[in-house]
Amino acid sequence: MDQISTKQSGPRRRTSRRTRIGLIVMALLALATAIYAVPRYLTGNPNDSVIPLNTDVALHYLTLAIHAVPAGLALVLGPIQFITPLRTRFPRAHRITGRIYMISVVFAAIAAIVATGLSVDGFSAQVAFALLGVAWLYTVVQGYRTIRRGEVQLHRVWMVRNYALTFSAVTLRIFLVSGLALRPVLGIEFAEVYSASVWAAIFINVVIAEYFFVQRITAPALRRRRRVSTNQSPKSPATSSQAPTPDPELAGQR
Ligand code: HEM
């Protein structure tokens, strides 16, 4: 990543068809998860909670509500931020939505860390949620700091990382539903399915985000650098005096 130009420059890039389809699928899954998971924490009735509540703590349901509502908002807003034409044509809208996203994540993450302490769903899930909550906060703070410094490309990297963590709420529910359906075959307890789903969701999302960086950022940068150094080799003196072309993939793009 040492070659990354962090300031904004470079030509605009068209969003490929594959990227567009990926974004649409991601947005639909995020919306479906928010609609499925959040409304039952808006009723004010603790009996609507999907997960068992801690009977020693009267405010457990409220904590889940304070977590679920901004978390659901962040989940739905995230994909909008990755739409390149919207970012380039309406930078002000991108900034406003981005602020709402970041504030939502901060509230949701703090409530998540409290909810982790109250959870009755087992130590393994608690450890996973605690790490996820801290990483969620850390990545959003990094996303904020980098954009304040004008480091657009680094901001993009941190926000992709952050949304990968946000999206683990979707992956978790996919794994959980599949795991629960397989429970009679596997003969395992709910707690085992739950904690395995949380760990697997975090792992898969982080790996996919890092794969995205390698494929979309690091690999093209290395290829361009190799091309530039080949052009500048003593065999082609005509090009040796040229400055390396700025890398559109690495240069900050909104
Ligand atoms: C990525 C960081 C997140 C962390 C660290 C986190 C953490 C937690 C924790 C600790 C609980 C209580 C679990 C238990 O006691 O077993 C919980 C529940 C919940 N979370 Fe999150 N969460 C995150 C993201 C999200 C997102 C993006 C949503 C958006 C839909 C969400 C929606 C909910 C809901 C609705 C519940 C209540 C349980 C249920 O009905 O499934 N969370 N979360």
From TrEMBL:
Ranges of Polar residues composition bias in the record: 229-244
Which residue windows are transmembrane per the record?
21-38, 58-80, 100-117, 123-141, 162-182, 194-214
Q: Does the keyword Transmembrane apply?
A: yes
Keyword Membrane found: yes
Region: Disordered, residue numbers: 225-254
Q: Which Pfam families match?
A: DUF2306
The UniProt keywords, alphabetically, are: Membrane, Transmembrane, Transmembrane helix
What name is this protein filed under?
A: DUF2306 domain-containing protein
> Which species is the source of this protein?
Arthrobacter cryoconiti
